[in-house]
Amino acid sequence: MPETRPFLHQIANLEQLVALLSVLPDVSFFIKDAKGRFQALNRRGCDYCGVASEREAIGKTDFDFFPKRRAREYVEDDRQVLNSGIAILNRVEPAPESEGSPHLVVTNKIPLRDASGSVIGVAGLSRRVEQLRGEADTLRRIAAAVNHLHQNSGHPLQSEDLARQSGLSLRQLERTFHKLLGTSPHQYLLQIRIERACRLLTESDATVAAIAQECGFYDHAHFIKTFRTAMGTTPSRFRSGRRSKPSAGPAKPLTP
User: Which of 129, 156, 187 is the last residue of a domain?
Assistant: First the structure.
């Protein structure tokens, strides 16, 4: 933490901040340890888990509250953050409610580090995306577009193609996308690609050039420039820094 913020070092008890997050009416908040066990949960989080109080959830995992398929998705996301140390930001996905629920949430997950810099847990926030004046169908289409970006981030993708696949005009897609996520489909795709590149740089022994192509960057120079803009360093230096941390884990080759 920058030395220009010494006041934050004076805060003795994290539970003071957790208490503030606990009263947010429209946001689900949680903290999990490295084994996926809940350590903090606010009121909306308790509602999603189907428990009356935080006490009933502490020490339990997603598998205690959600269908196996959905629980596996949550656990995989948590593991991604734990292993890479990279946050998941502004992901649109189904709300953690009953299967078939029309509600969507925008989810963010960040790694929690101890004093030595090792990742020891995950904190997350989800806010419900309310219907935009009858545009529930449009929201579902945007969620499908977001899922398509995640599933096909390694392939060439154009906003026009995404709009046609979603059944929206390009203007509708870009306007609603920006309203929900604060960015354009193109910039969101770059974010997905950079997050994936960070994971591969941390977890594999593949060359930087191979990772660039795997993540959809067919111009190596463009990859280096985009990565530096997003992460403040080059891919090689990022890899070197992550390998020096205990949380980086063993390196593996890229799977075909």
Answer: 129
pLDDT, tens digit (0-9, with 9 covering 90-100), for 131-145: 444 456 777 788 788
pTM for this predicted structure: 0.57
**What is the number of domains present in the chain?**
2
Buried b (16+ CB within 10 A) or exposed e, 197-220: bbbbbbbbebebeebbbbbbbeee
Residue with tokens 């490295």, as numbered in its chain: 34
3-state class (DSSP) for residue 81: helix
Q: Give the Cα separation of 69 and 79 in Å (integer).
A: 15
Please say which residue of 129, 153, 172 terminates a domain: 129
DSSP-based three-state secondary structure for 90? strand
Residue 184 lies in a domain: yes
Of 54, 64, 63, 56, give the one whose Cα is nearest residue 19.
54
